[in-house]
Amino acid sequence: MKNITLSADEDLISKGRSYAQSHNTTLNQLIRDLLSQKVLCTQKESIQEVFDLLDRHPATVTGYHFNREDAYDV
Predict the structure, then answer these.
(1) Full-prediction pTM beyond 0.85?
(2) What's the confidence (pLDDT) of residue 36?
(3) DSSP labels, the chain
(4) What pLDDT, on a 0 to 100 scale, did the predictor assign at position 9?
(5) Residues 20/30, Cβ–Cβ less than 8 Å
(6) What is the chain's alpha carbon radius of gyration, rounded to the nearest angstrom?
(7) Residue 14: which pLDDT band, with cuts at 50, 70 and 90?
(8) Any residues with CB less than 8 A from the CB of 13 and at least 6 apart, and which?
(9) 18/2 Cα distance (integer angstroms)
(10) Does residue 61 have a pLDDT over 80?
(11) Could you tell me which residues come within 8 angstroms of residue 47 by beta carbon, excluding any fewer than 6 positions away?
(12) Distances (CA, A) of 25 to 3, 35, 42, 43, 72
């Protein structure tokens, strides 16, 4: 695991530590969890958005199965 340095207001850090302690975790773990939730959620939403766009696209091909020869046909 790689370490990073973050800067934040002292009051925010103090409140963050209190919040983390009241939830039986550390500030470090709290920040990791929140960052993971935000990043992974964004990736999942982006992937779903791409699939939704593909499903709605008028040029969507249905009923045709590509094969190896089609992929290499020049």
Answers:
(1) no
(2) 86
(3) ---------HHHHHHHHHHHHHTTS-HHHHHHHHHHHHHHHHHHHHHHHHHHHHHH-TT---S----HHHHH--
(4) 95
(5) yes
(6) 23
(7) very high
(8) 27
(9) 25
(10) no
(11) none
(12) 18, 15, 24, 26, 54
Torsion angle (degrees, nearest 10) of CA 19, 40, 51, 67: -160
- Tokens at 39, concatenated: 């990043």
Residue 59 or residue 43, greater confidence: 43
- Residues shown for the chain: 74
Q: Hey, what amino acid is at 67? A: N
Q: Which position has the token pair 């695991």?
A: 1
Q: Give the integer Cα–Cα distance in Å for 33 and 64.
A: 43
The Cα diameter of the chain in Å comes to 64
